[in-house]
Queue: 4 jobs
Job 1
Amino acid sequence: MFNSIRTKLTVTYIILIVVVMVFTALFLLNILEQYYFAYQYSAMTRAANLVSGFAAPKMIATPDVVDISNLAYDFSRQINARVIITDHRQRVLGDNQRVGGLVGTTLERKEIAAALVQEEDWSVQYSEAAESWVLQNAVPIMNEENVIGSVFIASSLSYIHGVQDDIRNYLIIATLLAVVLASFLGRFFTHRMMVPIEALTVAAEKMARGDLTQNVKVYSKDEIGRLTTQFNEMAQQIQESTRQLKDFVANASHEMRTPLTSLNILVKSLREYPLDANEQEEFMEDIDHELERLIHLVENLLDLTRLDRLAGEDTMAKIDVVPTVRSTLEMLRKRAHEQDISFSYSLPERTAPVFAVLHQIKQVVFNVVDNAIRYTPAGGQVWVR
C-alpha cells in the first residue's frame, strides 16, 4: 500500500496536521493555564487584602476568635474559597470552617511565613478535603507599619481544570475533523497531481515496448507540466531520429544491393560457364570495380559514423581550428584521388584561437569539400585554402 506516492503524500499530510494540532493544543493549554493561574492569584490577592483590612482592627486588642471566624466565613461565601486568619506567630485566630476548623492550632505554611515578612509566595497542591487542586497564597495584616498577622486563602482550581478539559476535548474533536478533511483533500489533490505522472509512466512503458508515437496531455504549467512538455519533445525527437535511421538504413541497403547483386552474378558466371582468359580477365575487372564501389560505400558510412560520434561533444572551446581542418582534408584526399581529381590545400601552420565546437568545424569542412569532390568531373582539380 505504501508503494503508492498518493498514499505516502496523504499519510504525510495527516501526520503533519496531527503533529501541528498536538503542539498547538499543548501550547494553548499551557498559555490558558498560566493566564487563569495569574488571574486567580490576582483575584485571591485582592480578596485577601480586603479581608486583611477588615481583620486588622479586630486583632489590635484581645482577638475574638468567634468574631474573626465569622469574618472569615462571610468572605469565604463571597469568594468561594477557604479563608484562614492567623496572628504573627502563625496561630489560627479565625477559620471559615467554624466546625472542625483549625482555630487554636498553629498553621505552618510557607505562604504565611512569607506574608509575615512582607514577601509573596504561592503554591498549587492537591487538597484531600476539597478533592481537587487548590491555589494557595497569603497576605500580611498590618497595624500601621507592623505585621500583626496574615490572611491565608486557598481557592479550588476545579473550574479552571474543567475549562481546560473542555478546551482539550474541543481540540481533540478539531484534530479528528482535520484528519478526516486532510484525508479527503489529500486524496483529491494527490490524485490531481498523480494523473499526469501516471500518464507519463504509461507513455514511457509503451515507448519501452517500441510504441514511439506517444504524446501526453499537458495538465499544468508547473514542474510536472514542464516535465510532460519535455517528454513530448523527447518522444518527437526519438520518432524523427528513428525515421531518419530507417531512411538511412533503407538508402544504405539500396546502395549496397546493386554492387552485391553484380558481384553475385559475376561470381556465379565464373563458376557455371566456361570462359576464356580474356573473358575471365574482363569478369575479374568487373568484380574489382564492384568491390571498389562497395568499399567506397562502406567508407562513406564509416565517415558518417565518425562525424555522428563526434556530434556528442558540444562543448564550445577556445581552439586553433587548423589541425582539425587539416585532418579532415587528409581524410578526403584519398577519395579525390580515387575519382582522378587533383586535390591540394594550403593552410597556415596555426591561426589565432577562436571559440568553436570542433566536431561542427570538421562536419562543415567535410560536407563542403566532399560536395566539391563529388561534383567535379574526372581530371578536374579541387583546391582548398
Job 2
Amino acid sequence: MKSRKSTIKRSTQETSITVSVNLDGTGKTDIKTGINFLDHLIVSFGKHSLMDLKVVAKTNDNIEHHLIEDTAITIGQAIDKALDSRKGITRFGNAAVPMDESIAEASIDLVKRPFSKLTLSIKRNKIEDMSKEDLEHFFISLLQNLNSCIHLTVKYGENDHHKVEAAIKSLAVALRRAVSLDSKQKGIPSTKGSM
C-alpha cells in the first residue's frame, strides 16, 4: 500500500504555512500557530482522527484572521492530497461526540465533490483567544478544502467552548472512520469507478 502522507506549503504576503500529515499515524501532533485555542483545536483534531499532524503557521501581516483561514486551508489540502485517488478507503464516516452538556455530530462522504453544512451554535463573541467569526471561518475553510461532502452540527449545549470541542472531535472521529482502509474494498469506492 502506498504511503498516505503529504506536505503542503502555502506562502503568501499574508502568511507562511507548512502542514505535514500522515493518515496512518497514531495521533501525534506538533502544532505551532501562535494562537492558543487554535493550537488546542488542531491538537484535538489530530489526536482523535489518529493522523499525525505537524503545523507551522506564521503571520506575515499580523492579522489573525488570515493566519486562521490559511492554516485551515492548508490542513484541508494536505489531507486531500494524502488521500490521493481515495482507492480502498471506507469513504463514509459519521460520529456523535459529547463534551459534558454539549453534543456534536459529523457525517462525511469523501467523494471529491465539495459541500459543507456547518452549525456551531456559538453564542459568545469570543472563546478563549479566538473570535466567534474566526472560529466559524476556521471550520468552514477546513471543510471546504477537504474536497468532500461534510455535515457538522452542534445538536445542543450551553457552554460554547464545549460546543466547539465536541464539533472538532466529532469531525476527527468521522474522518478517521472515512479514511480508514477497507480490506474488502477493491479499487475506488464508487459505482462510477472514480471519485
Job 3
Amino acid sequence: MGNIYGYVRVSSTDQNEDRQLDAMHEAGVAEKHIYMDKQSGKNFERPQYRRMVRKLKPGDLLYILSIDRLGRNYEEILKQWRVLTKESGVDICVLDMPLLDTRNGKDLMGTFIADLVLQILSFVAQNERENIRKRQAEGIAAAKARGVAFGRPTVEAPENFGEIVRTWERKEITFEEALKRSHLSESTFYRRLREFRLVHGGRDKK
C-alpha cells in the first residue's frame, strides 16, 4: 500500500482552508503529507502542488475535497487528472463526490463512468466560475452607473504642500517632519511630490 496525501488550494477570494484541512484530517491524511497552496486571483503558481507531484509514486492515494482544486478550468482539471492517474499511477479520491474515487471500478465500465462524471463535473465547475465572474462584472457595472466609487479614495496633498516641500528641500525640516506636516504616507508623499514638480516645472526654488 502506498502513501496517502492530501492537497488543499485556496485563493484570496476563497479562504476556506479550514474546511479543506478538516476534510483531510477526517480522511486520515497525516499532517506531513498535506500540501497547501495559497494564491492570488491573478496567478496560478502552485509550488506545493508541484512539490507534491514529484513525491507521488504508483500506488499512492491523493485526497482532494472538490474537483476544482486540481485546476482553474475544464482543460486543466482533465489534464491533471490524467497525469496523476495514467502517468503517475496514483489513485485520486474526491471527497465531496464519491463517484470520483479511482480505487472503485477498476474495470472498463468503472473507468468509463468515472471519466464521464469527471468531464461533466469539470465543465460544470468551470461554467459556474464563469457565471460568477459575469455576475460580478455586471454588478460592478451597475454600481458604477449609480455613481458608486471603487478602489481606495485618493489622498490629496494639503493646501500648503508647496511650502512644506520647499522647507524640506532647503533642509530646514527632516523628511519625517515633512510627512507629518503633510499627513501623507511616504509613497503618497512622493506621488504628490512628482505631481507638484510637474505642475511647477521641477524643483521650486522660491
Job 4
Amino acid sequence: MLSSNYTNRLFGRTRGRSKKKINLKNYHETVEKFKFQNFDEKFDYILDIGTGYGETSIFLAKKFTDKIVVSCEKYIDGNIVLLKNIEKNKIRNIRLHNGNVYNVLENTNKKYFKLVWIFFPDPWPKNRHSKRRLITSDFLLKLHKILKDNSEIHIATDSTIYVRFILNSIYTCKDYFLWLNQSNMNLNIKDYFNIETKYYKKAINSQRKPSLFILRKL
C-alpha cells in the first residue's frame, strides 16, 4: 500500500467549477477497482502526471500495451471521464492514483519507470504562486531516481512563463538528462504524437503554441 507520508502539498481544485452532482460513493468504489497499490517487478511502468480528463493515459495504455500506466490525478471530474473510457475501451493496463504523485515517488527506491508524461501542468503564473509549480530541478532529480536507464520524460506546456521556468530546471539538471529535442522544441505536439487533449485544444484555440520538452536520462 502507498504511504501518505509526504511533505509536498498538492494544490489546485478537486472538482470542476460547475459543481455537477456526483455520487462520491460510486466514484470511490470505481476508483478502487483500478487503484494503484504496489509495484510488480514483472512489469515496466509509465507515469502519467496530472492527466486531466485522462486522454494521455488512454493514449499511452493503447500505445504501450505491455506496460502499466500509473495515472496520477486528484481532479475528480477528470477521473470520472477517464474511468468511463477505461471501461468503454476495455483497457486493463491503467492504474489510477487519485492524489499526490509524491506518494508514488517516495514509496520506491527501485527504477520501475520507462517513461514519464507531464502534459500541461498548472503553470501557476503569478509570482507569489511560483513555488507551487511541479517541474523544478528537485522534482526532475526525484524522477531520475525512479527512471530506468535511457528512459524519457515528456513535458508539454503552453505557458511562456513555465517554459522559462522549465528551461532553468533543465539547465540545472544538465548532468542528469539529455534534452533530445532542444533544436525543435517549438514544433507542434502533433508532430510527435497523434493526440489532442482538452488543454491542448484550449491552447490552440487561444492561439498559444505548446512547447514540448523530451528529456532522456543519462
